[in-house]
Specification:
Tetracycline Repressor, domain 2, DNA-binding, mainly alpha, disordered N terminus, 70% helix, Arc Repressor Mutant, subunit A, 202 residues, homodimer
Chain lengths: 202, 202
DNA sequence: ATTCGCCTTGGTCATTTGACCAATGTAGCA
DNA sequence: TGCTACATTGGTCAAATGACCAAGGCGAAT
């Protein structure tokens, strides 16, 4: 029998290993299905089905379906933002941070799984205090990294600029999903303009 | 008996009038409940309850629950956007259009019924082609009005600027719902900056 | 070999859901 | 008065849902 560390190995050796496997599969399936069907349309049964797991396991590994969705979305969003944050951190050149952000923007069409997961989670968070708090932490982290990058670029008032850029980013993703004509390339000069160091007359 | 034109008059005279009344009440209740509970959590029964109407009426006046929600959200959004568009149209002064937009932004906290209705509808539209099309039309109309205002203000490239402003607007509403600290006043100078006529080096 | 702890199974349960409809009500017109 | 065109009622229906659980499985430690 092969090494049990293979991800998603149905024949994992110990019970604990198999359990972790099922958990992981459920979380992954939840991430997919939130994007595909929408937060409220993810049911225990389709979820278990997608994960290749019996539906009874959902409530063994998680307190509730909502708790599962919460954890799945939070972890997925954290992964995405960590990646973007890393791209920002490596930028030394002044405008490079904004360019990195713009490059990220091109990756999200508003209809891909990552975009949808974010939007779905934002909306769900408005009615789920626990998720709300988790997302607030993600916001703080990402905007902090963005503000730091802008500050290194000499922006006079990096915090509000970072907040505006982050909000515009999500707004653009949302609008791109509804209007595919909205190409990022035509907007790029304007987005750069937002972050320009000469800044607004404060 | 009083005049039957009173909105929501349960004792309206003719059957047709009563029918229109029930229809109106259902649409109004749908608008409220989409914001309160979320698009997918609006059921025929709570909807009829809120409207003060028996649940059987829902499928008499509308083809399906989704059709009702679609019409309710579309009409409500149209009303809001018509108002905003009017505010833009009356602006003659160059920067006045942006100021009008900023004033609108202050009205939407991201947690008020109007904000929530928009966000819910956007998300629902990603999985409902008919609603998608309706929203696309609203987008075209509002961005057109905004672009016209920017052009009157001498903006060199009004169309992309309007698209970016509209997306940023929605993004800010979305983020404000998740982060109440995000006051529009601190961001106002930056938003103005987006639309500044000297514009980006295109 | 037996026990122990965790994972898994397959099922049940009460609720809620969207849709549908036959029967009834009712106001205005002929 | 009776007819017509609606709107309304109160109910049924099958399907889907989140949660829960008793019984069984199974590797690992003793």
């Amino acid at each position: 029998m092969t090494k049990a560390n293979d991800q998603f190995n149905a024949a994992a050796r110990t019970a604990a290993e198999r359990g972790r496997d099922a958990r992981t599969r459920l979380l992954a399936a939840a991430g997919e299905l939130i994007a595909e069907l929408g937060w409220n349309a993810v049911s225990t049964r389709v979820l278990a089905d997608r994960a290749g797991v019996r539906s009874g396991l959902v409530h063994y590994h998680f307190d509730s379906l909502q708790a599962l969705l919460r954890q799945a979305s939070t972890e997925a969003m954290t992964r995405v933002l960590d990646q973007s944050t890393a791209a920002l951190s490596t930028a030394d050149d002044p405008a490079e941070a904004v360019e990195a952000t713009l490059a990220e923007l091109d990756r999200y069409t508003g209809t891909d799984p990552e975009s949808l997961l974010f939007i779905e989670a934002y909306l769900a968070a408005l009615r789920d205090p626990e998720l709300h708090q988790a997302i607030a932490r993600l916001f703080t982290g990402f905007r902090g990294a963005l503000a730091a990058a802008l500050e290194r670029a000499g922006h006079p008032d990096p915090d509000p600029a970072a907040a505006l850029l982050a909000a515009s980013f999500d707004g653009l993703v949302l609008h791109k999903g509804l209007d595919p004509e909205l190409s990022a390339s035509r907007l790029a000069p304007l987005v750069r303009h937002i972050a320009e160091p000469e800044g607004p007359a404060k």
